[in-house]
Amino acid sequence: MNSDGLTFSASPPAQPAGRSAPRIPPGVEYHRVLAGEKRRIGRGVLAIALLVAGLFASQLVLAVGAAFIDAQMGNTNPTFGGTDYTPLFLSANLVSIALLIPWSILIQRWLYGVRGPSLHSVVSQFRFDLFGRAILYVGPFWLFLSLIGPAVMPLRDVDWSTATLLTVFAAGLLLTPLQAAGEEYGFRGLVFRVAGSWARGPRTALALGAVVSGLMFTGVHLSTDPWFMLWTFTLSVSLAVITWRTGGIEVAVVVHALHNTLAALVATVLHADPTPALDRSAGTGSAALLVLCAGVVAVTAVVWWRTRGSGPALTPAEPHSGRV
């Protein structure tokens, strides 16, 4: 399909010989790949519970490991109430969330018998051409949004050595995109599909999938601030709509990764203390987050407009196993 510059390959990937897997249904939208004659709500709840449990378990294990190593080096990272925002603490947190990518793939394969590549897109491939165009289109706009916060809000300076600054900068640049991708595979991939399989009609499934994934995404951030909760829910629902329209998680990964990475890099360049961002209790957010909400809604509207001629991308007309 082709519509105003957004191109989706309709040809299924090659299937190697070997044991067959459950077929991906032909001609369905991304969020309906796991739908069947039975709703399998209990299985879906188990899938979501396993996803969240895996997320917090990996965070705990890596955080404890990072805290132990930091303690040996004389640092006290925030894992157990410390104040040293160390490169190791940052890296452990980012990697723990990035692990949602293989974990989501394993859960889908185990509970639904659908192979991992289908989480990329409706053609069971990660479409790097679409990914690259999304960076070019969204990148400059989101860079502008990333500069608004530091320009209007007071920042607290942090006294880091040059080596620490460079290490934090490198970790943010290399690992933050993977962290954002992990959340996309987990929530706009697996949870969106699981909840979307509970409804009979595709539109009801879309609404249910977007709301459930939005609530779960907001919940795992453990925030009690209404402004921050509004932002995370708006971000999640918007990215779910983008995933539905484009038929994959590529554009959603770009938007999420740009937001997280640019915010981290701008803060590092300005020598701003990132520790306050870890506090999401009531009163820490502000109406300034409405700017980000408006920004992600605008990106969603553009994606919808650019796919107006084709509608949401569908799985190939000929069924295939989802192998690559």
TrEMBL record:
**Annotated ranges, domain CAAX prenyl protease 2/Lysostaphin resistance protein A-like:** 169-261
Query: Which Pfam families does the record match to this protein?
Result: Rce1-like (PF02517)
What InterPro entries does the entry give?
Answer: Rce1/LyrA-like_dom (IPR003675)
Q: Which UniProt keywords apply?
A: Hydrolase, Membrane, Transmembrane, Transmembrane helix
Instruction: List the residue ranges of the region (Disordered).
Output: 1-24
Q: Which GO terms describe its molecular function?
A: hydrolase activity
Report the EC number(s), separated by commas if there are several.
Answer: 3.4.-.-
Which residues fall in a compositionally biased region of kind Polar residues?
1-12
- What sort of enzyme, by top EC class, is this? hydrolase
Which residue spans traverse the membrane?
A: 45-68, 88-107, 128-148, 160-182, 203-222, 228-244, 251-272, 284-305
Q: Is Isomerase there in the keyword field?
A: no
Q: Does the keyword Acetylation apply?
A: no
Name listed for the protein in its UniProt record: CPBP family intramembrane glutamic endopeptidase
